[in-house]
Amino acid sequence: MLAWALLSVIFCMKSFELYGYTDSSLVTCILTVVYLAKFFWWESGYMKTMDIIVDRAGFYLCWGCLVWVPALYTLPSYFLVSHPQQLGLNLTLFVLLIGFLSVYVNYDADHQKLHVRNTNGNCFVWGNRPQIIRAKYYLLNGKKSESLLLVSGYWSISRHFHYIPELLLAFIWSCPNGFHYVLPYFYFIILFILLMHRAHRDDQKCKYKYGQYWYEYCQKVKYRVCPGIY
Ligand SMILES: NC(=O)C1=CN([C@@H]2O[C@H](COP(=O)(O)OP(=O)(O)OC[C@H]3O[C@@H](n4cnc5c(N)ncnc54)[C@H](OP(=O)(O)O)[C@@H]3O)[C@@H](O)[C@H]2O)C=CC1
Ligand SMILES: CC(C)=CCC[C@@H](C)[C@H]1CC[C@H]2C3=CC=C4C[C@@H](O)CC[C@]4(C)[C@H]3CC[C@]12C
Questions:
Q1: What is the total count of domains within the chain?
Q2: pTM for the model
Q3: Alpha carbon of 214 to those of 26, 65, 132, 172, 220: distances in Å?
Q4: Of 22, 111, 127, 153, which is least packed with CB atoms within 10 Å of its CB?
């Protein structure tokens, strides 16, 4: 993750060295760094995700983080080094605004879920007491345990609504590259496939883990990612 942030800054500095101030490189760099700062801020939350709990630190994650991420996730900023663009002030501000908003909504949704669990539901979500399902499940050692499934806030819009701002951000920080080439959108395309597959995989995992409680949640929140579509 650190390599991703550092490479984005390095590519931006290289653009400045070659062409002087280039707003497209700066915008992509700022959004990437803000997004990754958010990741490090929320890092303890990441320890509870499917990557760590289900996938674990095997070849997929280690190779992914050491090779895949630095080489391919940095393509939007790398491409700008050889294809600089000038956006102008209005477009620069527009891209920044959409980008910051996406980072915020994505963070807020992850935070909502963690906060409700950390407070055992004794908190407010969007100004109201949260609706929750107390889902019982069995651990591998046969002991019974319980998790809270949030049915309010972002988690009432769809079961993985937070993937929408994640995708919007990936798209918007690639946009400074213009629309003549596909390569800078590679991260967005891959992320789209990865997140749609992840939403499906996560549903399978939760169905297996929570059984009837997950069906109850699915009855209340019908869509996986985008309401009305998927
Ligand atoms: N840029 C990238 O390449 C990627 C970025 N991301 C981002 O990483 C972050 C974490 O990813 P995410 O897929 O959410 O991580 P998780 O794998 O932790 O999310 C799913 C888990 O959350 C719990 N959960 C699901 N629904 C609810 C609910 N309604 N209430 C409470 N808990 C629930 C379940 O875990 P439990 O067993 O604890 O109940 C479920 O397995 C997100 O911001 C995502 O956008 C994700 C993938 C790729
Ligand atoms: C072959 C292939 C598609 C490999 C990719 C595997 C991994 C590199 C990625 C799988 C899940 C990704 C992530 C999940 C959640 C994240 C939180 C976000 O805030 C920052 C990014 C990330 C850590 C992201 C990083 C790449 C993966 C681990």
A1: 1
A2: 0.94
A3: 43, 31, 12, 33, 10
A4: 127
